[in-house]
Write a structure and sequence with these properties.
The protein has about 350 residues and is of the alpha+beta class. The protein has two domains: about 190 residues, Ubiquitin Conjugating Enzyme, CATH 3.10.110.10; about 70 residues. The protein has nine helices and eight strands. β7 and β8 form a beta hairpin. α8 runs antiparallel to α9. The radius of gyration is 52 Å and the shape is rod-shaped.
Length: about 350
């Protein structure tokens, strides 16, 4: 937003002024928005005119298109056309498809509106009778102490286009181009010195006009400074809003993952509890009855092998006890002979059973 406004003010510094004013939407909601108010120059029938306009920038700009209005003065009327309705609201395909284009900007919009207004001016002057009555009312209005009355405008009206239908032909648009100093007053001046001629003012009015002009310049300076601060704050708020939305979306994604993991863990815990309950309901089986042979001979072979392995372990631990002087040699030799004899008998019996079962070593 700041870059677009700066570019517009650089190109139209004598025509558009930034202001912060309250805008009322069609639904009645009021909102403080940044606006560019003033005129834009156009060329119509080889003459230059200034069209009074107002550009309102929504808070979500540049994602949302600006709101453009033609703001006629007291001596003007809006001419409804293809791109302007009777209320002065401006429409154009560039505005309608603003969000579909990534390069939409305010400078191009003003250039497009200048081209549209040059082909079909959106304002025309009131009738001469109405203008004369208004001038007479302004001249006859009382003054206080030599100062101009509040109804007297110190700022000249933008150029006026007179709309005069001709008999026997189509309606035509012609520009009122008076001569002399009157023509210069109808044009919007290109410099900051504007207002009624000093020759038409009394000394008191000239002094008041000078004070008003000084106050206006001070107000414009303060407003520009305040507007820069507002634009900076608005940019910071927009950045903070974007960051907040991103962080909120990250938290939402993390919450979704956590909820999914919780649901998965809960499902697995339920399955494990169900399986544990099933195992607890199983009857206890005697291990000695489960680990056995398929016949009497196989059970005998199983017992012989177990006894032979037990004798082997006993001999091992006797030798270990002898080496540590925990068993005397005579006792060791006595038990070793008995165990060896018994082990030999077990091995012979195991070999005989295996031969009976058909196992060949």
């Amino acid at each position: 937003m700041y870059a677009d406004v700066e570019a517009v003010l650089r190109l139209f510094q004598n025509f558009l002024v930034p202001m912060a004013e309250t805008y009322t939407h069609d639904n009645g909601r009021s909102q403080l928005l940044l606006s560019l108010i003033g005129t834009v120059p156009i060329v119509y029938q080889s003459a230059t005119y200034n069209i009074p306009v107002a550009f309102w920038l929504p808070t979500s700009y540049p994602s949302v298109a600006p709101i453009v209005f033609v703001t006629p003065t007291a001596l003007m009327l809006v001419k409804a056309g293809k791109y302007v309705d009777i209320s002065g609201r401006c429409y154009h395909p560039y505005l309608a498809y603003w969000s579909n284009r990534s390069d939409s900007n305010l400078v191009d919009l003003i250039s497009i509106m200048q081209g549209v207004f040059s082909q079909e001016p959106p304002v025309y002057a009131k009738s001469n009778v109405s203008a004369q009555q208004q001038q007479q009312q302004q001249q006859s209005s009382p003054t206080l102490g030599g100062y101009p009355s509040p109804t007297t405008s110190l700022r000249p009206a933008p150029p006026i286009l007179t709309y005069s239908p001709r008999a026997g032909s189509n309606s035509a648009m012609s520009s009122s181009q008076p001569t002399g100093t009157h023509q210069q007053q109808n044009r919007y001046p290109s410099s900051t010195t504007f207002g009624p001629s000093s020759q038409q003012l009394t000394p008191q009015q000239a002094q008041l006009y000078t004070k008003l002009q000084t106050a206006l310049l001070e107000f414009n300076t303060a407003s520009s400074r305040e507007m820069d601060n507002l634009v900076t704050v608005n940019k910071q708020l927009n950045d903070a809003e974007t960051k907040t939305k991103d962080e909120l979306q990250s938290l939402r994604d993390l919450n979704t993952k956590i909820q999914y993991n919780i649901a998965t863990l809960t499902r697995c815990i339920d399955q494990l509890n169900t399986k544990i309950e099933q195992i607890r309901t199983w009857p206890e089986e005697p291990v000695d009855e489960i680990i056995c042979g398929s016949s009497v001979v196989h059970n005998q072979l199983f017992e012989l092998v177990a006894e032979e392995i037990a004798i082997e372990d006993t001999i091992y631990y006797l030798g270990k006890a002898l080496s540590q002087d925990k068993v005397e040699l005579n006792a060791y030799m006595k038990h070793l002979r008995n165990l060896s004899r018994e082990q030999f008998m077990k091995k012979a019996l195991i070999k005989k059973v295996k031969a009976q079962l058909g196992h060949v070593e």
